[in-house]
Amino acid sequence: MSAQQAETASTKRSYLTVLLRALAGAPHETMGDRRRIYDSAQKYLLRFFDSQDPPMDEDTREIEIRILRQTIRLLELDIRAGIDVWAPNYRPAELDAILENLERSRRVRLDRKRGIVERERASAGAPDPASPADTATVDRLRQALAFLDPRTGTGSTTSSSPSNTINIVRALVLHQFHLIASESRIAVVWLLIQPAVLLAIIHVGYLLVDTRTILNMDVPTFALLGGGSWVMFRQVIFRVTGQISHNRVLVNFPMITPMHQAVAVALIYLVIFTVSLTTISLIGGALGLMGPPDHMALVAVHFVGIWALGLSLGVLFGTIDIFWPYFNRLTPVIERILQLFSSIFFVTEQLPEAYRGYILWNPLAHGTQLLRSFYFDAYVCSDASLSYFWLSVIAGLSIALIAERLIRRYIQPM
Which long-range contacts (CB under 8 A, 24 or more apart) does 142-145 make? Predict the structure, then answer.
């Protein structure tokens, strides 16, 4: 900064004296007359700044303009209050404090600029401080998302084609996977062992009443199928709701929609819980507590059906949350109610006939009982309906797609 600018920055201009002289030399009885004098003073000050050589820096220019405007404001307030502004020692009461605050602001800005210049000078020619892990992550995401940039010529700016949709979801899955892996290790471990904890709770409950089998199903496997599918269902709802209503950063890419983000995070948790439940099942089989499924393919298909039901419900909850943010506080209550009516701790055949209808309205109850019936040939499920479950899944996904399409215009990127 030049010596002239330094002098301007360090000297408190007596704009008050200049304004009083201007008012004394022109009509100033009305507010309109005074306003014209004030406007002329500001225009003169701007012309003075523009005539400086070298030009005045923006920070000093802005501070000086603010000093003039604050002086005009205090002077006008005193004139309207009937204070004698022509007295020899007149000075607005707040002017010194305002000048001090503005000078402090000027010094802070200058120090900040000086620090930026020093850091740039220190880092000039220095190696990239990013760690190898950070560099690898950036390279991986750059490769995964390269097709999203129309300048590369490798992809389209729209996501209507199936291949683009698959590529977008694949890139988002990689992104979400590394985000989850970077979270607290305790949280990740708890995510993996949560089905085992719920399994133990259900198992202990039946052991207390000396129950080893439930309608020809061993209790550990019965508890694993019910508890594991429920934990996955609940986590998918929770995570998908957050992606729809809160995670809006990636929506800045015009080809990424909230549904892409929802499907990506749901797929992550489908893989996580598939690995978790398979591991627990293998450990239980090695200990002689659990047996293998009688129809592995059908068990897998209905497990995916329960996952799809959670995905559709998560999208619907996220859609409602956009229009009614308070709904987010009600979702835990709704999930607990669903837990009681989803055949997790029991099947409807264990209940009296009069109470079964209250459970069977819930498609998740049908899915859980069908999952157990395909795992155990010995368990004949007389209440669950295959058509009701899959029609509910298809209807839920259809409604979720329509709802997500309708709320895209209301989702503002961050």
Answer: 144/170, 144/171, 144/174, 144/175, 145/171, 145/175
Q: Residue for token digits 């047996």?
A: 291
Q: Residues 87-117: pLDDT tens digits?
A: 878 888 788 888 888 888 888 878 888 877 7
Cβ contacts of 213 within 8 Å, gap of 6 or more? 219
Spatial CB neighbours of 54, under 8 Å, sequence gap ≥ 6: 2, 5
Please check the confidence at residue 221 and state whether its pLDDT lies above 60: yes
Q: Give the pLDDT confidence score for residue 145 in this predicted structure.
A: 54
3-state secondary structure of 214: strand
The residue extents of the domains of the chain are 3-123, 139-410
Q: Which neighbouring-strand residues pair with 217?
A: 214
Radius of gyration of the chain (CA): 35
pTM: 0.60
Measured CA to CA, the distance from residue 112 to residue 105 in angstroms comes to: 11
Q: Where are the alpha helices (DSSP H) in 287-385?
A: 296-323, 327-340, 353-360, 363-375
